[in-house]
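Troubleshooting entry. Yesterday's outputs looked truncated, so today I'm pasting the complete records for two proteins to confirm everything comes through intact. If either block looks cut off, that's the bug. Protein one:
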Amino acid sequence: MPYILIQITKENVTTAQKQQLIQEATDLVVRVLHKDPATTFVVIDEVDTDNWGVAGESVSTIRNRQRIGK
């Protein structure tokens, strides 16, 4: 019973995009591992950009800097 966790930042991801992630992640596990899609679970965890960091900064800080062009 595969469990797939997709973590992304909360940045305007649409319901259609999430559905596509779920479908394509399921299809990948079915194709590569020959698992039953009926028992393949996909969870999308949307993390606030204040709680996601890279290179010592939060994504919120990075995005704000990009918005103001610095």
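Protein two, checking that the full record survives here as well:
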Amino acid sequence: MARKIGISRQFFVKSMFFLLFLLLMGVVVIHNADSTIRKATTDKLYTELDSIPKRKVALLLGTGKSLKNGQPNLYFRYRVEAAAALFKAQKVDYILISGDNSRQGYDEPTDMKEALVAQGVPSQKIYLDYAGFRTLDSVVRAKEIFSLTQLTVVSQAFHDQRAIYLAQKYGIDAIGFCAKDVDKYTGFKTSVREYFARVKVFWDLTFGVKPKFLGEKIEIH
């Protein structure tokens, strides 16, 4: 009986050490992914209209108009405001909205377009990519479908960094215009999820993950 208890304790201790090892490895991987993306994109982010270079097209990354609880999504509002400001300052000539339209009643690109038009951006200056299901899809499709090798990404700073890093890996000269961020309490879940999304970037690049859809080319003119 005592021998069985001893074996059980040994197994428990070994299991705890193994779990601790996995946890530490996870922390290292997350830290390295975050640090690499930050260092590679720090000088590519802009917060002021006066200092950002002009580009032909802004890539506005999509998000839902409303939260699950029905409240307005501030990420949506701030991204639209940033894109509209960029256009009105003549820092871009066109806006490409790339977002998710994969289920009935959910249409990020159209919702964002309507919000931009309401802020005075001409509809003919807006192009829609309905297959931007992920940031990787949005970036790769900007090049493969819309033939863009230079662009300005518009989203919150953390999202701009990840998109710009992906763009660099796919041969796109990208800079980012940072939309206003939400407060730490409201954006806590998004902040946590972002760390794992950054790890996923390196998984996707290592294994050559492709966008869900490609298709025929569309010219922005």
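Both blocks look complete. Sanity check on protein two: Residues 2-41 form the longest helix (40 residues).
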